[in-house]
Amino acid sequence: MKRHGGAPRLVSRPLALVFASTFAALTSFYLLLSVVPQYAATSGGGDFGAGMATGALFFATTLTELATPRLVAAFGGRFVFGAGLVLLGVPSLALGASTSLAAIALICMLRGIGLAIVVVVGSALTASLVPPDRRGEGLGLYGVVAGVPAVVALPLGLWLAARFGYGPVFVTGAVSALAGLIALPGPAAEHPEMEPAAGVLAALRSPALLLPSVVFMLTAVTGGVVVTFVPLAAPAGRGSLAALALLLFGAASTLSRWWAGRAMDRHPSLDLLRPSVVCTGLGVAGLSFVDQRLALLAAATLVGAGFGVAQNASLTLMFAVVPRTEFESVSAVWNLAYDFGLGAGGAFFGVLVTRTGYSAAFALTGAVILGVLAAVWRSRHLVARPPSD
């Protein structure tokens, strides 16, 4: 499709369908992301149960991401994408009847499998369906599509749970994911050359791909901490404050991801990853003042801004150094970093906070994130120059 002036249109019909299905799936995901840990905690699991719920979700997600390129090659993107939507939606209906940690963990793992499929296929298709010289902008737009549910659904899920109980939130999450089947991308969106799963392992051995993904993973740890523990760490009786903090986190992440995509089209480099590490590290350390309203809101915004920049800067860099046939594998590696970081942030912080309390745990996590800056600063030579498309 062309614009009247002859320039390629950024969003074609196949890409619009990818965006619509992705939006529905991630609305389901974010509605439940902070609600399920809270549900696990109030069902007798405490802080450990909350961290376990997030950890189980992303443990299953990371394992499935390794296999998704092979699944797409065997069954096609449309079928696999549809299966992902079903796995995100249907298990959500069973959450209301599940009070044991084992049952909650199992449901979280099933939803994690669905999440892995949706994000790997969605980002790879986006990179394939936009003009190469506007790939950063296209991925930035994909980031907006993925980020708006975080802005709206993340705090909305907490608000709905507080006002109406957990059951309606679980049903809404299920309906949202299954609604994505209506806009399921058709054959025109299929990537004709799918890379087998061995490509994921090869990508992990490439410094030009490994470095951005590791740096991004470290920033994703802070995202996992924010979405899992800010609702629990906020002062009792101030649930609206936690919801506002998550709203600011999601908004900052979405806007900064879109901005970083446009910037990366003009200046693809590692430079944007450095300030993203600073923002997330300082932000999560600032959460040690979680009992102070302005400090909490500022810290959540700072983490979101750094996290959003890191998302698009790392993903654009990684797509730029591989041929199109490896897009599924690169998408899998990037999403592995994303989900492992989020899961580790939830699971390990849950263990840490039981020993130190929230303020010390936030401060220690921020110090660890900032500690990677020296390694990042010395790593420019590891990032390959992006080839011209």
Mind explaining what this structure looks like?
- With 389 residues, the chain is an all-alpha fold.
- It has one domain (13-382): Growth Hormone, Chain: A.
- 77% of the residues lie in helices and 0% in strands.
- It has helices at residues 13-33, 35-75, 77-89, 101-129, 135-164, 166-179, 198-204, 207-233, 239-266, 273-286, 293-320, 327-356, 358-370, 373-377.
- The longest helix is centred in the first third of the chain and has 41 residues, at 35-75.
- The protein is globular, with a radius of gyration of 19 Å.
- The relative contact order is 0.16.
- The model is unreliable at 1-6, 192-198 and 381-389 (pLDDT under 50).
Structural class computed from helices and strand pairing: mainly alpha
N/C terminus separation:
19 Å
Q: Which stretches of 5+ consecutive residues score pLDDT under 50?
A: 1-6, 192-198, 381-389
Overall average pLDDT: 81
Share of residues in strands: under 5%
Compute the gyration radius: what is it?
19 Å
Helix content: over 70%
The biggest sheet, with number of strands, parallel, antiparallel or mixed sense and barrel status, is:
none
SSE topology string: HHHHHHHHHHHHHH
CATH architecture: Up-down Bundle
CATH class: Mainly Alpha
Overall tally of domains: 1
Brief summary of the model shown:
With 389 residues, the chain is mainly α.
